[in-house]
Amino acid sequence: MQPTSLNLFGLIGPSGENFGQFVHMIPQTVLGPQERIELEFTLAAGSSDSKSPFIDVQAIDADGRGEQLDLRLVEVPPKKEKAKTKKQGGGEARQEDKD
Amino acid sequence: MEPKEKLKYPQVARNQDDWEDGVSFVALSSADIHHGVRYRIILKNRDSATAVKATMKIVLTEDARADDTYDSNIHPQSFDEVQRVKPKVPGLKESSFIQGSNAVMRTFQVASLAPFVPKSNVIYQSLVKTGPDSKNNFMRGLEFEVTEASTQLYAQVYVYSAPEDLHLALYRSEGAGSA
Asked: Which of B7, B16, B59 to probe the A interface (max A CBs under 10 A)?
């Protein structure tokens, strides 16, 4: 599955600031055995270190038998080689984050 | 297959994995989120034989700081303080944001969209302390009136530290009924 952008409608704005709070739902998604969903995001605003971002993620399985879902939040290290490759088309790399 | 890249785990303030009344429930929250860092949320079906149908909700708050002083102030005092901010995207009507569109749904490969359209860029919050050593006064109700054909109300408790249960309720005024 493609990473779903958190900036679905450009509500966050071109600088990624002042979005307040963003809620994104992924409803009724079927996960096969051992299957996973992965979503990636970056807070793009570079000058907002004084703010305290907070993330809350919840997932339910209404027909669950317990201990079937596993939820994790991880930090993705930057890929140096890809960054160099994309430097030539820098606009594309930035667009990926903003969209 | 597990990814081979070396992943860091942000400090997670809450990590729940529970099951109640036939509903399997997992949740996590973290304040260890930084600008310019790429994060990945992974929801996995642990079971090796059975499929699951999961619904996931992600709430990202830009600035979750609360006042250090414990009180029961509510902001805003009135919903009149909250002004709608129309999304500034050329070529799109405001209704498109609320209803979504087939093009957007196809792009993001989702069956439906449930965007949260803020009326303000400000997160209104209140920090309340109950129990011993507190004023023991609970949060007052915040009255508001819905004058539109439909609307969306979103309320969330995202920082808590207490053995007590939390209760969030929406009541219809005039004492006639509650929801």
From this structure: B59
How far is the alpha carbon of A23 from chain B, nearest alpha carbon, in Å? 4
C-alpha angle B171-B173-B174 in degrees, rounded to nearest 5: 140
Look at residues A83, A1, A23, A64 and name the one whose alpha carbon lies nearest to residue B18: A64
CA atoms within 13 A on the CB side of B17: 12
Q: What is the predicted ipTM?
A: 0.70
Confidence of residue B5 (pLDDT cuts 50, 70, 90): low
Using a CB-CB distance cutoff of 8 angstroms, which residues of chain B are in contact with residue A53? 31, 33-35, 60-64
The CA-based angle A92-A96-A97, given to 5 degrees, is: 125
Top residue of B9, B43, B158 to mutate, by most chain A CBs within 10 Å, is B43
Nearest residue on chain A to B38, alpha-carbon basis:
A42
Going by DSSP bridges, is the β-strand pair B52-61/A21-31 parallel, antiparallel, or unpaired? Answer: antiparallel
Residue type, B155: A
Query: CA dist A65 to A30, B18, B40, B47, B53, Å?
Result: 15, 10, 26, 10, 12
d(CA A20, CA B176): 35
Q: At what angle do helices A80-87 and A90-98 cross, to 10 degrees?
A: 120
In tens, the pLDDT along B48-100 reads 998 998 988 888 877 766 555 444 455 555 555 555 555 555 665 555 554 45
Q: Contact B108/A4, CB-based, under 8 Å?
A: yes
